[in-house]
Amino acid sequence: MNDRLQQIIGQSGNPREARTGTQDDVVYAHIFDAILEQRLAPGTKLSEEALGEIFGVSRTIIRRALSRLAHEQVVLLRPNRGAVVAEPSLEEARQISFARRIVERAITELAVEHATGEQIANMKRLVKEEQACFDKGDRGSGIRLSGEFHLQLALMANNAPLLNFQRSLVSQTSLIIARYETGNRSHCSYDEHNQLIKAIEQRDKTRAVELMMHHLDHIDHKLNLQDDGASGDLHAVFSHLIKDRSKGAK
User: What are the phi and psi torsion angles at 22 (to 5°)?
Assistant: First the structure.
């Protein structure tokens, strides 16, 4: 049994995580939330045996849940080596950030057109809960609720393909933040979310899109997506020593 994996999966105390549905759905939802909350770090090995014991289900069910997560590109299935939480490269991170801007713009425009009063009220409650989590230092739950805000926004847009894209992009963004975030780890997303809700409620499409792009700028500015020259290639890292030794041998 992987004790660390069991601790990560079972850590969250959020009552809304009492999942319903098929066993596949329960396993999928818990792992998805653990990734979204950054309790499962990029590169974490997802042992089928450990997960089967944790959830009390067969490895077949675990494989189906992991396959769904792999389809959303947040889990990598490696032949003969098992599954791991995805580790987006710098180039992948840049592409995900670019794709999310396009999707979020379309979702925001549609949300302004289709949002109901009930959906807007639910979003306001969600943001209050998000703020409460950050205020009490529960960063993981705050990050998950921040991601859920964007998923609920996609539901308001009333477009199923965009919702599917968004689900993958939001979870991949969480992995990017976990791997590439630098500097101040404070979050003011709930303030920006409140402003966005207000613009949607006022049916101000131009303002809503402007706020969304500013919000994504804020996320991107906290990431280091520049090539810092680091390498896992020992020969590349110490190439200058190799060259110096070669010159000395002449």
Answer: -70, 165
Give the predicted TM-score (pTM) of the model. Answer: 0.75
pLDDT band of 232, cuts 50, 70, 90: very low
* Tokens 């402007």 belong to residue: 210
Q: How far is CA 239 from CA 184, 245, 247, 248, in A?
A: 34, 10, 12, 14
Q: What is the domain class of 90-221 according to CATH?
A: mainly alpha
pLDDT(15) > 50: no
pLDDT in tens, 64-92: 999 999 998 999 999 889 999 999 999 99
Please provide the size of the chain in residues: 250
Would you kindly state where each structural domain of the chain is located, as residue ranges? 3-85, 90-221
Looking up tokens 């189906």 gives 64
CATH of domain 3-85: 1.10.10.10
- Residue 165 CB contacts under 8 Å (≥ 6 apart), including other chains: 99, 103
